[in-house]
Write a structure and sequence with these properties.
Layout lengths: L1 H68 L1
Length: 70
């Protein structure tokens, strides 16, 4: 009887540890996905800002060119 009780405790602890490991893995995957999404968003915003900056610079150059004509 003592052996069975001990074996059950050992199996229960193994199961508890396995469940904790699975929970940690799910959390890590979720955190990784969130970070990757944030990185992708940041890259998209930086690209958009660079494009807008280039457009503004082109407009400024066009205004300067027109101003020189007068």
């Amino acid at each position: 009887m003592v052996w069975e009780f001990t074996e059950e405790d050992r199996l229960r602890e193994q199961n508890r540890l396995h469940e904790a490991w699975l929970r940690d893995q799910r959390y890590n995957e979720s955190a990784k996905k969130k970070l990757m999404d944030e990185l992708a968003y940041e890259r998209k915003m930086r690209k958009q800002e660079a494009q807008e900056r280039e457009e503004i610079e082109r407009e400024i150059e066009e205004i300067k060119r027109k101003a020189k004509q007068f």
